[in-house]
Amino acid sequence: MPAADVKSLARIRDPWRKGGLAAIAVSIVAVAHFITPAGLHGWHWLHILFQKLFYLPILMAAAWLGIRGTLLTAGAVSAVFMAHILLNWGGYRMTQADQIGEIGSFWIVALTSSILFRRERRALEETADAHRETIAVLASSLDLRERETGMHSKRVREYALLLARQLGIKEGNTRESLAMGALLHDVGKIGIPDGVLLKKGGLTEEERDMVRLHPEHGASLLEQIPFLSGAREIVQSHHEKYDGSGYPLGLKGDGIPIGARIFAVVDVFDALTTSRPYKAALSYWSAAEMIGNGRGAHFDPIVVDAFLRIPYTELHGLARRYGVDLGEG
To answer: What does the mean pLDDT of the chain come to?
Structure first.
């Protein structure tokens, strides 16, 4: 996986960067306002236009920075605007009174917009939490149906997020998609008959083909849910292999979505380290060796290297919280 791929997917909503953009907006508007002199001339309309644009950085701050950042921005705008008033103090008194009143309007707009944006953010967060809870319940019901997998979906979600952090993906949409995709990766199995899904012995070729359709079935189920578009990529591609020998589309290398490349490693790791009716659980060290052996064939080499750098104690503690013992470290 190219470093640029990780960096582009690891972009975070940096408040310092957004604060800097608001400050730049204040500076640009201030300079434009100062260099277009006031007075009864043909360009006075442009001077007034730039004066009104002082509201722009205030609204930017309200959308990005919360109440404190918005008030700081309003203070900066007011200071710049007051300097403009003082430099032109010899003008008309009515104009001066109007300009001083405009400073008051900066603060009114700052307070009102920051409160409204905060209320909107809170509503969106509550909606997102409700979606997460619904998806977690759905994932639990899928795990319950496949009784031998236990809390598989929740474990692989936590493993995947831990691995993403090791790769430098710490915030943003990629982690959210990875968490949702990990929980829902086997949602397509809902269409597989119990006689096939829960069969104790080996599967026939026809039954294997039926099971291999579950990534496409799952992706089809999620297709009409826009906020799960990133998760859908993981659902559809979590059985693809780095060398192109996977299914359903035979994707290869960086053509496989990064979330699916991350998930493939932790999905196999969890399958190896948990007991099933047809096999005993492997220790962490045996599973890690098998993951390493799949480097460049089944798995993205960079993702494998990052997984093997995760301290054993972190994986062990996480696994125990979800019902699995990885053995002695």
So the answer is: 81
Decide yes or no: CATH 1.10.3210.10 for domain 147-321: yes
Please, where are the H alpha helices in 88-172? 93-145, 152-166
Q: How far is 211 from 203, CA to CA, in rounded Å?
A: 9
In the chain, what are the domain boundaries?
Answer: 3-121, 147-321
Residue given tokens 């026939």 in the structure block:
204
Q: Which residues contact 11 (CB under 8 A, 6 or more apart)?
A: 172
Residue 153 identity: S
Taking each helix axis from N to C terminus, what angle separates 284-293 and 301-309, rounded to the nearest 10 degrees?
Answer: 160
Q: For the chain, how are helix, strand and coil distributed in percent, rounded to 5?
A: 70, 0, 25
DSSP assigned state of 41: S
Q: What is the pLDDT of residues 284-303, one digit of tens each?
A: 999 999 999 999 999 999 99
pLDDT cut 90: percent of the chain above it: 32
Q: What is the mean pLDDT of residues 305-315?
A: 95
CA proximity to 109, closest of 79, 141, 73: 73
Please check the confidence at residue 10 and state whether its pLDDT lies above 50. no
Q: Got the DSSP string for 242-305?
A: TTS--SSS---GGGS-HHHHHHHHHHHHHHHTS-BTTBPPPPHHHHHHHHHHTBTTTB-HHHHH
Give the model confidence (pLDDT) of 75-129 as tens digits. 888 888 787 777 766 666 666 677 777 788 889 988 999 999 889 888 888 887 7
10 Å CB burial of residue 139 (0-12, 13-18, 19+) is buried
pLDDT for position 104: 87
User: For residues 105 and 158, what is the distance between their CA atoms, to the nearest angstrom?
Assistant: 48
CA-derived radius of gyration, the chain: 28
